[in-house]
Amino acid sequence: MCVHRIFISSVQKEFAAERRALKDYIEGDPLLRRFFEVFLFEDLPASDRRADDVYLAEVDRSAIYLGLFGREYGVEDSSGVSPTEREFIHATERAKERLVFIVGADDSNRHPKMQNLIRMADTQVIRRRVTTTPELTTAVYASLVEYLERHGELRTLPFDASACRNATLDDIDEKHVRWFLAQARQRQYSLAENTPTTDVLSHLNLLEQGQPTNAAILLFGKQPQRFLLSSEVKCMHFHGAEIRKPIPSYQVYKGTSFELVDQAVDFVLSKIARMVGTRAKGAQAPVEYELPREAVTEAVVNAPERLTRPHASIPRNPLLAEPLFLARYIERAGTGTLDMIARCREAGLKQPEFRQDGSQFVQTLWRWGLTLEVIPEVTREVTPEVTPEVARLLPLAVRPASRQELQRALSLRDDEHFRIAYLLPAIAAGYLEMTIPEKPTSRLQKYRLTEKGRAWLTARKKEEKK
User: Fold this and answer.
1) Cα dist. 419→102, 146, 425, 465 in Å?
2) Which whole-number Å values give the CA distances from 215 to 232, 325, 336, 436, in the listed order?
3) Which of 33, 43, 72, 191 is 20 to 30 A away from residue 263, measured at CA?
């Protein structure tokens, strides 16, 4: 299989986070990583070579030029040309595949030479305008899938990008689209609420040769289950902590992806305790549930996304994930699980648990009554039990280390397996913590032992000496 090299071109300081996010996204996606690798100039070691010679040589080595054009133009050479423009010209001369993304909705504050570069690109390629990182990654995903399909390397499109069989634009509910645009405006989404439906679907990459994709029907269809029978959510409520018949409450919900999430969250919240406050601070009395609503929502959104797959920071169906993000149903890819942990901590609850049970990914949110029964005594002198995977991980985090460093030290190649079997359980159990918890997706993020983690290592060493 041929692996295509992607050269990301931009003003490095302006798009440092976006460049890293794209590399991590492409090389972490189960489909894209089979076909692509990403070059970032900042990953090169120090060298006794001219920078312009290096980056132009890397353009030559790459199959795809991916340009991010923003406000800044970059440092100009003696000819008054920046590296970003020189890379674009070089890629054009070498007949490279060029993917250009204009970042930001406001063109008035762009450097004059950047405006000229954008006008130059407009005459040569079809470029795409984006405003957020999730919007950028989704647009790049769609462009790379189209590239693979055009070159005959992807004969079957991913599920979300495939045309929905027998569906037409008449099967899209315009009311759902209008509602979505109103919600998305809160995320500064660039399309106005009166944008024609076909333009909205096209902008979200939800059309395949003019036909609605599976993602389009799931998100905005009049009757999604008419085309995709399994797109439903089953909710069951059991008394106690064991799954056993008879089932006191069992509901099967149908509708769009947004409606499925709403119905499932409402089902869960209807089965737990809630506290209604007073109207002292307003006309509406505040309502607080024993489980944080945001944590319940994140858990529910994870479920349709990964019914039979491990949890991962890279969305399995990015064309579904972006509209869910824009409508504020989820946060940025990669932070959802950590947000759940934080919300439960703030509520004084035991941290959520995540595990792979055969073909099912299981998430457990602990209520307060159960928390008191299951939290072990932290003062006992025997070593608390941890999984073999966590036991292998903890000694490697004595000093702060990045995810990539920990994964390499364990000789693990599968990002998903490392995240679900090693990293998340260690964080959820309180043995590991982030060095920059307020920015979970920071490229500078590292992980280190907590006080509890250090105590566990000390106790284990004492036991090994016995």
Assistant:
1) 33, 29, 8, 31
2) 14, 14, 21, 34
3) 191
**Helices within 123-223 (DSSP H only):** 133-150, 174-184, 197-203, 214-220
Distance of alpha carbon 352 from alpha carbon 350, whole angstroms: 6
Q: What pLDDT is recorded for position 126?
A: 85
pTM value is 0.58
The pLDDT score that the predictor gives to residue 349 is 80
Which of 251, 172, 265 lies closest to 219 in space, CA to CA?
172
Residue pLDDT, tens place only, 255-286 = 999 999 999 999 998 888 776 666 666 666 66
Residue 177: phi and psi, rounded to 5, are -65, -45
**Terminal Cα distance for the chain, rounded:** 53
CA distance 388 to 405: 19
Q: Which domains can be identified in the chain, with CATH numbers?
A: 4-150 (3.40.50.300), 169-227 (no CATH), 233-371 (3.30.565.60), 376-465 (1.10.10.10)
Q: Is 338 in a helix, a strand, or coil?
A: helix
**Residue carrying structure tokens 């995240």:** 419
d(CA 203, CA 197): 10
